[in-house]
Amino acid sequence: MSAVFNFTFVPWFRSVAPYIHTHRGKTFVVGIAGEAIAAGKLPSIAQDLALIQSMGVKVVLVHGFRPQVNEQLRAKGHEARYSHGLRITDSVALDCAQEAAGQLRYEIEAAFSQGLPNTPMAGSTVRILSGNFITARPVGVVDGIDFQHSGLVRKVDATGIRRALDGGSMVLLSPFGFSPTGEAFNLAMEEVATSVAVSIQADKLIFLTEVPGVAMDPSQPVSEDNPVDTELPLDVARKWLAQLSAPQQPIDTAFYLQHCVKACEAGVERNHILPFSVDGALLLEIYVHDGIGTMVIDEKLESVREAGVDDIGGILQLIEPFERDGTLVKRSRTEIERDIHQYTVVEHDGVIFGCAALYPYPEARTAEMAALTVSPQSQGQGDGEKLLKRIEHRARAIGLDSIFVLTTRTMHWFIKRGFQPVSPDWLPEARKKKYNWDRKSQVLVKKLG
Q1: This model's pTM is above 0.85
Q2: What pLDDT was estimated at residue 300?
């Protein structure tokens, strides 16, 4: 094994570990578009879902079958008909849907049964459990159009699904529901996944789709100048839905977005739209800081707040590499525990990505900002400025006139933000006694207006 591999793998794995801890015991509902299976993505998706489950995540998998049903219809010389974004399911289409669902369930179960040596699923045991968890009702007649055997979710057996998940099984649902009289209805995968996520109050609803996500300007296609918006607050998502045309097909921007908004409004905290065309999209979205698709959330996940004792481990993990390379002065765990309430942190989805401490010197009406650190994963995204503003706010709140920093490597960053270099003799007497003349740190001061 090469030294280069060791050098890259170890820090990568350490950066992923907080997300493994965060998601353990959580419940994800994953809706896979039938187009993903038609495109040959099922083996890699199954491997990724098995890996996610092995790390303690409970998974409900809902598969679509739009292209598979259309293929069956074409083979029978029958036309696929849609209206209002839903399939019109006549008796022939219902037969085709049942055939497609049976075939896909067989393929999915087979994909999760693989265990060849030297593959991601070697040694894995994934139990797949299906059942009549969905009670449905007919769509009926809408604007004069009879949808026949197309249905809507009436009720989800949330207790049964939770019991299966708690027993260690992955729950597999086809887009079918049954009435109390035993009549079968063809459902939309997106509605089934959303209804299940809401009913069991899942931690995430994830759609693996044909689209890359929602663009910063949703009225225009995703491009280099109009990238995917990775974090979309609920109020903004509502605004876009009000402005966009009613969706008629899955590639329309509002098609999956409407379901994410519905789930978010009903208490599902995080709702994702991912492209199945990207290999490992699920892993990249779940275990990487910014992900690759669009996540609709009720509020911004990133927060700047004062630290507490539960943050000590995260702060130590964050600053340790910078202490090791000499950027920061080494601080012991005891010191951080003692001063924890002096710290401000930037937290994103339960992970600490930045910190700074404020040490007041009231007799001199100033304070030191120390241990300002931002994770390499989020540098360049403004976390340093957020921490600086919060530290300035805290200093003003206790009546101080200035803040100062000691730095050996980041002098220009502070100067750009209003700090002025001064002599170490400027320091308050208590701080001057602790100044390390061998380290030759630059002293910079910022007046608080």
Answers
A1: no
A2: 56
